[in-house]
Design goal:
Elements lengths: L2 H5 L4 H26 L1 H8 L6 H8 L2 H15 L1 H19 L5 H29 L5 H23 L10 H17 L7 H13 L8 H8 L2 H23 L1 H8 L4 H15 L1 H13 L1 H21 L3 H28 L6 H30 L2 H9 L6 H6 L9 H4 L4 H6 L6
C-alpha cells in the first residue's frame, strides 16, 4: 500500500466501527424510504383523506421531540448504552407497524419508531466524529451517510415488488425488523468512545451531583450561543423548504406523470445509486476546501434542481433534475451533519445533535403543515411545494457569515471543553 493510500484508509477497528453504527442508518433510511414510496398504498389501505396527507406525514416526524431526551442521556450515561436502547425500541415499533389496523395505530407506532431512529442517527454521527481522526472525519462521515443511504436503495428495489407481496407494504416492515435484530447481535463488539470515557472519568473524580447532569442542556445554550443560533438558522429554512418536496415525490410521479409503483421504485433505485456518490464527493471535498463552501453551493443547487423537477413536463429533464437534486442533497446533508457534530464539545455533543434534529424535524413538520394549508388555495401539491421551496436558500446566510470552518481541525480546537468553567461561573462564554 502506498503512503497516499494509507493516508486515505481507516484502520481496521475504525472500519468496523463505521459498519456497526452505519448498519442501523441503513435500516432507518430503508424505513423512511418505504414510507415515502408506499405512501399512496398506505394512504389507501388506512383511509387517510387527501387533504390530510401532508399533515399526517408531518405528525409522524414529531418522534424527534421524544428523541431529544434520549440523545441528551447519551451525554450522561454514554453512547454505547443509548445505542442499545434506541435500536431495541426501533425494532419493536417497526414490527408492530406491520400489523397496524387503523391510521391512528400506524401513526402512533411510526412516531415511536421515528423517536428511536432519530436518536440513533444523531448518536451515530456523534460517535464517528469522536472516534475518527480530523484529517479523515469528513471522508468517514461521507461513508457513514452513504452506507445509510443504501437503505433507500433497498426500499426502492423492494417497492418494485409491492403488488406481488402477500401483505403489500406491511411485509416491508417485517423485513426491516429482521435486519434490526441482526444489528443488535452484531453490536456486542461496540465499545464506548474514548472521548466520552475520558470525560466520564473526569466527572467521576469531581463526584457531580444530579443537578450537574443538567449541564449539557445548560451549556448548549450558554457556552456557544452564537453557533447554536446560526446552526438553527441554517437547519430550519432548509428543512422547512424541502420537507414536502421529498414527501410527495412518489405521489407526484404516480399521479402527475403516470408512473407505476414499479417504475417509481426502479427510478429511485438506479437514480439513488448515482446520487449516492454525492456523499463520497462531499465528504472528501469538505475535508479539502471546507464545509461552509460545500454547504452553500449544494443548498442553492438543490433548490434550483427541485424547481425544475416539479415544473418540467419533459420526462428526460424530470429524471435528470431529480438525480442531480438528490446527489446535491446528499452532499449538503452529510456536510451539515458533520458541522453539527463538530461545533460543540464532548460534554454536550450528543445534546447539540439532538437539538439540531429537533429543529430539523420541527421545521419539516411546519413545512408539511404549510403544504396542507396551501393545497386547497393553489389546487395542486406541486404548486404548493414550489412556493415553499423559496424558503430553502435563506439557509446559506448563516453558513456564509456566522458559522466557523471545522474542516481538518481537531474537535478540541474547534470547540474547547468548557464544562468546568460553566460549573464554577455560568457567565463564562468562550
Amino acid at each position: 500500500m502506498t503512503d497516499s493510500e494509507s493516508r486515505h484508509r481507516l484502520p481496521r477497528e475504525q472500519r468496523l466501527l463505521l459498519f456497526l453504527v452505519g448498519s442501523s442508518l441503513f435500516i432507518n433510511n430503508y424505513d423512511l424510504g418505504i414510507f415515502a414510496l408506499a405512501l399512496p398504498q398506505i394512504q389507501a389501505s388506512l383511509h387517510i383523506p387527501e387533504e390530510n396527507i401532508g399533515f399526517y406525514t408531518g405528525i409522524i416526524r414529531f418522534g424527534v421531540l421524544l428523541a431529544f431526551p434520549l440523545a441528551f442521556m447519551a451525554d450522561i450515561v454514554g453512547r454505547k448504552r443509548l445505542l442499545l436502547i434506541t435500536i431495541s425500541g426501533m425494532t419493536i415499533a417497526t414490527v408492530l407497524s406491520a400489523f397496524a389496523q387503523t391510521a391512528t395505530h400506524f401513526l402512533i407506532l411510526q412516531t415511536m419508531a421515528r423517536c428511536f431512529s432519530y436518536a440513533e442517527d444523531m448518536l451515530c454521527y456523534v460517535i464517528v466524529a469522536e472516534e475518527i481522526d480530523a484529517r479523515m472525519r469528513g471522508w468517514a462521515l461521507g461513508r457513514l451517510a452513504a452506507l445509510g443511504t443504501l437503505g433507500y436503495g433497498l426500499s426502492s428495489l423492494l417497492y418494485t415488488q409491492i403488488d406481488i407481496l402477500p401483505h403489500g407494504w406491511r411485509d416491508f416492515y417485517v423485513i426491516g425488523a429482521a435486519g434490526l435484530i441482526v444489528i443488535i447481535l452484531a453490536r456486542s463488539q461496540l465499545r464506548e468512545t474514548q472521548r466520552f470515557a475520558d470525560l466520564q472519568a473526569a466527572r467521576d473524580k469531581t463526584r457531580q451531583s444530579i443537578g450537574r447532569h443538567l449541564t449539557p442542556i445548560v451549556s448548549l445554550v450558554r457556552a456557544y450561543p452564537g453557533r447554536f443560533i446560526a446552526l438553527v438558522a441554517t437547519t430550519a429554512p432548509y428543512s422547512f423548504g424541502l420537507a414536502a418536496t421529498f414527501a410527495f415525490i412518489s405521489k407526484f410521479l404516480q399521479e402527475s406523470h403516470g408512473y407505476t409503483p414499479k417504475e417509481v421504485g426502479t427510478l429511485q433505485f438506479f437514480g439513488g445509486a448515482l446520487a449516492i456518490i454525492g456523499y463520497f464527493v462531499a465528504g472528501r471535498m469538505s475535508d479539502s476546501i471546507g464545509r461552509r463552501r460545500i454547504l452553500t453551493f449544494t443548498i442553492l443547487l438543490v433548490t434550483g434542481f427541485f424547481y425544475v423537477f416539479y415544473l418540467t413536463g419533459d420526462p428526460r429533464i424530470l429524471v435528470a433534475s431529480w438525480i442531480c437534486a438528490l446527489f446535491l442533497y446528499f452532499a449538503s446533508e452529510v456536510t451539515l451533519s458533520a458541522l453539527g457534530s463538530e461545533l460543540f464539545p464532548t460534554s454536550y455533543r450528543s445534546t447539540s445533535a439532538a437539538a439540531r434534529g429537533v429543529v430539523n424535524v420541527t421545521a419539516g413538520i411546519m413545512g408539511l403543515a404549510a403544504e396542507s394549508a396551501l393545497y386547497p388555495l393553489v389546487g395542486s401539491h406541486a404548486y404548493a411545494i414550489i412556493i415553499l421551496l423559496a424558503v430553502a436558500p435563506f439557509a446559506t446566510i448563516p453558513v456564509l457569515f456566522f458559522l466557523p470552518e471545522t474542516a481538518r481541525r481537531s474537535l478540541e480546537e474547534v470547540s474547547p471543553e468548557v464544562l468546568h468553567d460553566l460549573e464554577t461561573d455560568p457567565t463564562v462564554h468562550p
